[in-house]
Amino acid sequence: MRTDTEVGGWPYRVRLYFSIREKSARVLMGFFLLLAGACANPRPPPGGPPDHTPPRVVHTTPAADSVGVGTDTRIRIGFSESMNHRSVTRAIFISPRFSTDPDFRWRGRELEIRPREGLREDRTYVVSVGTGSSDESSNRMEASHSFAFSTGDRLSGGEIHGSVHLSTGRRGQFYVWAYDLTAAGDPDPAVDPPAYVTQPGADGTYRFVRLGAGRYRVFAFQDGDRDRAYSPGEPLAVPPGDVPIGSDDGRVQLSLLKMAVRDSVPPRFVSARTPDRRRLSLRFDEPVNLSSPPRISAADGLLEVQAIYADATDSSRVWLVTGPQTAGTQYGVELGGIADRFGNQIAPGEAAAVRGEGQPDRRGPVPVRVDPEVGARHVPQDAALHIDFSEAMSAVVKPEFWVISDSTDAPEGRFSWPRPNRLAFRPLQAWVSGKAYVLRVRANRLSDVSGNPAEGEIVFRFSVASPEDQGALSGSVVSSSTTIVVQARSLTAPERMHAVTVAPGDSSYYLEALPPGPYRVLAFGDVDGTGSWTPGVVRPFVAAEPMFVLQDTISVVSRWETAAEVRLNTYVWTSSELDEER
């Protein structure tokens, strides 16, 4: 005992140590008893099955179509389940727009919207909850939900509805904006905020409701940068015309809105080089159109440009075949006026500098592409054969061009050069229906502009379409005073487009000699007579050519005429026409 006292506190520490061990033992014992109880009484795991149910709006204040609503009213929207707050507030659209953003307050599943300046008197408001709204499990609403109310004694009843051709090649949500032209004039979505905003549903459909009499312009875009606003360079759909609503209850169905990327920035020059004394390449940041060669000048005069062509594998590079360059000489290439495919031109006066090369071209040309591609099927009987080369070629095609074997005769036809680096061969007699061809070309029978021959063999391997293996597609369009073009694009060979025109006043179309398989069918009004769809211009406003795309693919079957049951409506239907259609 005395020893314990002399060491001071040791017995205390021993007692504390054993006290901790006793407590740990009790905790462990409790844990094992709890585990045993859980095993003896099995229960389902917490949380339940995954939530895959899309949320929906279940009630609103004011109720839909209410009139006489007080100007100090707060808007409330109740949902079927707990929501992701940020996704909802980013997808709420109130028309007409407030001058300042309202306050948002959440109470459980209900969102309260508090306009800071209050509601205007004698005004119809439309509140839309867009499809960007999602619940806490990230399930998005299947369709936008809109409701209207009025601070006056009546509601406007005008409607615009239609669909957007949704593109899945880019990221971002889709928006549809409408402008009241009595107030907006000539609106530009990149600058002017819209009066009405909604989002298309998963099927592309949208609806603007409770619009007053007036004239409206509708745009649709894909918000790639997710800022809920249109930015130049994002896909944008220009409408096929402005929408007139003649009365407060007028209804209009707008034809399909199809988006296109509109480039408003001129091409940017990247680099120039001279690989040999007869060639000069210019690289830009996008493809350009050069219908006429640019001027190339030096201190002692101009350098002759003999040919111009786009690179066969890089559309942003342009090649010039020049007269003999002088080694080390500084040349200036005038770039002003060179435009991209959207018509945006490089500013006048801009130029590129490059040093001349004195070495001759000693490298032979390389075949980079053949058409039809190797193994192609259902090739038309009148198809031409094409060979694309890495550089400009001499127009001379030497004899013994074709490799002849016991099973192959040399086809007779005409050679031509659509471009300096592309050779075309068109047979004098049609390819034999249903026959498989293997044609070989001696590449050394062709040479570039410097006389260097190509090397090796070029092979064409394809089979020709047979009438017994082909089908047809028929249907009808809404007759119009404008020529309508109907196109069918094969999903198995997208590079081939089959088209037919429907004369003004007619309504039936018939596409024949189609290889079997799935097709996407579209129709557009060829207003400008170019034969291709024109997407329109924002400002000054030029309407897009009206278009319709069948949502479902059409399967063409051999030796069979497939009827497209849906009429291809490419124009705007007014309320009276809608009633007649119903």
Q: Specify the CATH architecture of the largest domain.
A: Sandwich
Amount of beta strand: 35-45%
CATH topology of the largest domain: Immunoglobulin-like
Mean pLDDT: 86
Name of the CATH homologous superfamily of the largest domain: Carboxypeptidase-like, regulatory domain
Kindly state the number of beta strands: 42
Can you lay out the helices and strands and say which pair or pack?
Elements: H1 2-7, H2 10-40, E1 57-61, E2 75-79, H3 85-89, E3 92-95, E4 103-107, E5 110-114, E6 124-129, E7 145-150, E8 158-165, E9 173-180, H4 181-184, E10 196-198, E11 205-211, E12 214-223, E13 235-237, E14 243-245, E15 251-253, E16 257-258, E17 260-261, E18 269-276, E19 279-284, E20 288-289, E21 296-298, E22 301-302, E23 305-310, E24 317-322, E25 330-334, E26 339-340, E27 351-355, E28 367-371, E29 376-379, E30 385-389, E31 413-419, E32 422-427, E33 436-442, E34 457-464, E35 471-476, E36 484-490, E37 497-502, E38 508-514, E39 517-525, E40 547-549, E41 554-556, E42 561-563, H5 575-581
Parallel strand pairs: 8-15, 8-16, 29-34, 35-42
Antiparallel strand pairs: 1-2, 2-5, 3-6, 4-5, 6-7, 8-11, 9-10, 9-12, 12-13, 12-14, 13-17, 18-19, 19-24, 20-26, 21-22, 21-25, 23-24, 25-27, 28-30, 30-32, 31-32, 33-34, 35-38, 36-37, 36-39, 39-40, 39-41
